[in-house]
Amino acid sequence: MAERLLVRALNGGESTKIVxxxxxxxxxxxxxxxxxxxLKALHLENNLISKVCSEICxxxxxxxxxxxxxxxxxxxxxxxxxxxxxxxxxxxxRINRFAPAACDGLRNLxxxxxxxxxxxxxxxxxxxxxxxxxLSINHNRIxxxxxxxxxxxxxxxxxxxxxxxxxxxxxIKFMHMLQKLFLVRNNIEVLPERFCDLINLRVLNIAGNIIxxxxxxxxxxxLREFYCEENPLFLKQPVRAAIKQDVWSLQEITSRFxxxxxxxxxxxxxxxxxxxxxxxxxxxxxxxCAICGKFFLTxxxxxxEFVSPSKNWKIxxxxxxxxxxxxxxxxxxxxxxxxxxxxxxxxxxx
Length: 350
Fold this sequence. Notes:
Helix content is about 10%, strand content about 15%.
């Protein structure tokens, strides 16, 4: 049957645009594909193919390639020759790596599906997929999101469900076009502070992680759907914190003074700091106190403020309050907090 379908396709010559050989128990790709340079779509799903043939390099007009549910172990280097490719389906294989140059020629790729594979990381080279808008790598073993992925400005949907992620990089703020983000069943503890810069985000699913609070401003996201069940979110219960005297290191005292002077545009310090890049880098890590508005570096207390979820959100049924992560610079400010701000008994001092 597979041979007969292929012969029919070959008889069509350059007029053949689609070849479908799904579920034919094929162990290798037919080398005769090189005789179909006008091919637009190639479907080889549900076979036993373990390697991409070199002849695929001739298919420079191919826009869709489906190799789902085969036996591939890598995203092969031959992909770089498919310069017109827009949709690449590689789900359900044994892929655990990208060949070094696999992404080089895929400048027109808009969809990449790598669900149900064995990837432990996403290569930095993925940054070459400049037109990628949909990326799905569900059910793999990914442990981290490379910052390079966050610079793919056209991505509108990102799916990383059922992986081993523990955090999200701060650089996610650059994904301005992101509309749908799925991070179900990972090990994520916190969302970065700049997560709230995702102004186009409309669907967020973080169910089944270990998140307890959300960054300040999270309630202002224009979400339509938000799911966070099976996270150990803080409940609206006061926690009594012991009041201590603030003791700061000399570095902390100096850093606070400089940061707050810089905020007031002190011309002397603004000019002087330009000559000390290491100091400038240290001060860039400063935070702003939610109570007094002053800047601090390493001594802070973490609190939680509870706000109501937006009425425009479609949410998990049991979500009555959204716990926001709030940072305070001292016990003095903690004593001046409002009635809806609770300490969570975590103090850091260096």
